[in-house]
Write a structure and sequence with these properties.
The protein has 22 helices and 18 strands. It is an alpha/beta fold.
């Protein structure tokens, strides 16, 4: 077989089901090899869409998502998805083409050193120069992508190498068992937790694994310890849990930070400094136990006093077995904080003014979505409202990016979720700015016959930056724009378009169109005027001497 056949065979051997991308002429051998493959090629309308979808497949399945692009401009369009997967710890492989490397008659036309470009934003990047080396390099790259922390890898397949005749075969795939945590570290952690007066548990993104999602509720049930989560840790434990205090949508000065400031020990499960900090450490302040697959990276705002490195689920199981309720613990203050958090989040969630308030939008989406329904958030100020106000009932039911925090990924992420879980309700929630960055993927969604609701929040501006601009005392400048008629825009791609003209229509539109097959784009005019009053002024005026 030729090298491109061998490459596809190696990917089949790895269990790859989808490849997302836009082929170019340098990928034609690879494309022909895919023609007879069990792997489904998902043709997208931009390489960013392909990369975001592949990364989301990695995030949702724990397997490596794969995307494809040509050389030069096709490959450079994968830079943002590469950083998205790398910072977000999503296993993803990018395959790009290249001009012949052994004999080329086109000079440097379209040639960019993509391997060198990918070095800072991937775990591994390599150009294939020998066809028979495909199996070992693919197997190695896949393994690297999955090793902790998971992330992005890149392979470049030049045109002439793809056409080479080969005789090698794919390597056997086997799983790698993660290390069990050190017994001494477990004993130290148990002693620290027993001696603490007000321990607090924090759940981060790396805890979002099946076994950990089962182990944490058992830990909480036995100990009665209160917990919070990071934005990317939402849903690891059902947020309806009586000991759940809230999500760290802000880094400081929210009601849950009253609890954090009183805690004398934080058990930090699955978080690292790549995600926006949920709290800031100070010398001589709250102690932190770092529980993760990898050691902590010391930072000005994060310097744990104890690391427990190893399989997180094993660590939690060991702690659960070793711990008993300590007479030192006093959680009465946390109970008071919980009431304050719940009261604050409920404020204005029933305010049905129009244009629609973010609090009301969150409440309506939560009301209409089943517990296993998935919302995928693009990036904008509404992400803070959803992270803070939306209670996730299960893991991977809230897909947001709090690592690279890029705009333009929300729609593609929702599409990947709908593709993988066709029986689940999926809603993409995008600002008008982020939506328009990759809105052409509506055609892909329609072509794939996905069942998907896309909420486009229209404020005709880059709302998050505008809010920050105002809060910093700068005059209003340079952030307003016009928008298309989103109803007609959706219809032009073969989708259904709808516009909410009153607050009463919002719930009805969501309830109806979640049940109707196809892609439904719902334009929702949004009012962000409460941002300053609720998220800044209101939180600044609070006191942690809670009633």
């Amino acid at each position: 077989m030729k090298a491109s056949d061998l490459f596809v065979k190696a990917l089949e051997n790895e269990g790859v089901e989808y490849i997302f991308g836009i082929p170019g002429e340098e990928n034609l051998d690879f494309l022909d090899s895919l023609r007879g493959s069990t792997i489904k090629l998902i043709l997208t309308r931009h390489e960013q869409g392909a990369g975001f979808m592949a990364a989301t497949v990695g995030r949702l399945t724990g397997k490596v998502g794969v995307c494809l692009a040509t050389l030069g401009p096709g490959a450079t369009n994968l830079v943002t998805p590469a950083a998205y997967a790398q910072l977000g710890a999503m296993p993803m492989m990018m395959i790009t083409g290249q001009k012949p490397v052994k004999k080329s008659k086109q000079g440097k036309f379209q040639v960019v050193d993509i391997v060198e470009m990918m070095h800072p934003i991937t775990k591994f990047t390599k150009q294939l120069i020998i066809g028979d080396s495909v199996p070992v390099i693919v197997r190695g790259a896949m393994r690297i992508a999955l090793e902790e922390r998971p992330g992005a890898v890149h392979l470049e397949l030049p045109e002439d190498v793809a056409a080479e005749e080969c005789t090698s075969e794919p390597f056997e795939v086997h799983t790698v068992n993660r290390a069990h945590p050190d017994d001494i570290a477990i004993c130290k952690a148990v002693e620290m937790i027993k001696q603490a007066k007000m321990p607090l548990l924090l759940v981060g993104a790396a805890a979002n694994r099946n076994r950990t999602c089962r182990a944490l509720p058992a830990f909480l049930k036995k100990t009665g310890i209160y917990f919070i989560n990071t934005q990317m840790g939402k849903g690891v434990v059902d947020e309806r849990h009586p000991r759940f205090l809230g999500t760290a949508a802000l880094s400081d000065n929210d009601y849950i930070h009253c609890a954090i400031s009183r805690a004398d020990l934080i058990i930090n499960v699955g978080h690292d400094v790549v995600e926006k900090p949920p709290f800031f450490m100070e010398h001589g302040g709250t102690k932190v136990i770092h529980v993760n697959y990898f050691a902590s990276k010391i930072d000005d705002v994060y310097f744990p006093q104890l690391d427990i490195v190893g399989d997180i689920a094993h660590t939690i199981e060991d702690l659960t077995e070793a711990l008993e309720v300590s007479p030192n613990w006093d959680f009465s203050y946390y109970a008071t904080v919980k009431k304050q958090v719940d009261d604050n989040l409920a404020m204005m969630s029933d305010d049905s003014r129009y244009p629609i308030l973010p609090q009301y939008l969150v409440a309506m989406v939560r009301k209409v979505m089943p517990s296993n329904g998935i919302i995928a958030l693009d990036n904008g100020v509404y992400k803070i409202w959803f992270a803070r106000n939306y209670k996730a009932h299960g893991p991977n039911t809230v897909l947001l990016d709090n690592a690279l925090a890029t705009m333009g990924a929300g729609l593609a992420s929702a599409m990947a979720a709908s593709l993988i879980y066709p029986d689940k309700k999926v809603i993409a929630i995008c600002g008008d700015g982020g939506f328009m960055m990759n809105s052409q993927e509506l055609e892909t969604a329609n072509r794939l016959k996905l069942n998907l609701v896309v909420i486009v929040l229209r404020d005709n501006a880059y709302g998050m930056i505008k809010w920050k601009q105002m809060g910093s005392g700068f005059p209003d400048f340079g952030l307003d724009y016009g928008n298309p008629d989103f109803v007609k825009y959706a219809e032009s791609y073969g989708c259904e378009g709808h516009r909410v003209d009153s607050s009463e229509e919002l719930f009805r539109f969501l309830e109806v169109h979640l049940e109707v097959p196809g892609v439904h784009v719902i334009e929702v005019p949004v009012d962000y005027s409460e941002n300053q009053r609720v998220l800044i002024d209101g939180l600044n005026s609070k006191t942690c001497a809670l009633r």
